[in-house]
Amino acid sequence: MISSDKAAALALLRTAIAPARAVEVIQTDAHGHLARAYIGDVPVHLAAAVSGLGTRRARLDVLGPAVQWRLSFPDPATARPATLVRTDVDGERLFPTLYESAYRAAWRHLHACVTGGAASPYSLRDLADDLSLLHTSASPPPTPNTWSAR
């Protein structure tokens, strides 16, 4: 079964970093999912947990040997901003935030695409590619170490 949270995770990766490839769903049930993929030759781990506590949110952590980035998105129904934090040997730096809901930002971007010819960061073709990766990963791979969706 292809869930919207897995597709949203791939869309976030594609928009923030680059398209994922070779997605392998390791575990999925009513409590969440665990998957792995690659961006280029870099392994990526995707996880989601379902809980009756707290609010919906998403977070992208990029961990490198000298620099780490954390991009956090609050529940889209709120007008709380996403936060971007960079951590390195000098400490943490919180980047400036924009106070608008995800829905308002999406509508403003759609308006810019329609009226000003702005390019969309995530196209219907991108969605089709991500869904194809998830559809392929829904079937067990013939050999786990050679999994490839393309």
SSE blueprint and pairings:
Blueprint: H1 4-16, E1 21-29, E2 32-39, E3 42-49, E4 58-63, E5 68-73, E6 83-88, E7 91-94, H2 102-116, H3 124-137
Antiparallel strand pairs: 1-2, 2-3, 4-5, 5-6, 6-7
Helix pairs in contact: 1-3
Query: Order of helices and strands, N to C?
Result: HEEEEEEEHH
- Would you identify the regions where 5 or more consecutive residues have pLDDT less than 50? 139-150
* Biggest beta sheet attributes: 4 strands, antiparallel
Q: Give the CA-based shape.
A: globular
Describe the structure.
The chain is α+β, with helices and mostly antiparallel strands. It contains three helices and seven strands. It has helices spanning 4-16, 102-116, 124-137, and strands at residues 21-29, 32-39, 42-49, 58-63, 68-73, 83-88, 91-94. The strands form two sheets. A four-stranded antiparallel beta sheet has the order 4-5-6-7, covered by helices on one side. Strands 1-2-3 form a three-stranded antiparallel beta sheet. Strand 1 and strand 2 (32-39) form a beta hairpin. Helix 1 (4-16) crosses helix 3. The longest helix is centred in the C-terminal third of the chain and has 15 residues, at 102-116. The protein is globular and about 40 Å long. The two termini are 20 Å apart. The relative contact order is 0.18. The model is unreliable at 139-150 (pLDDT under 50).
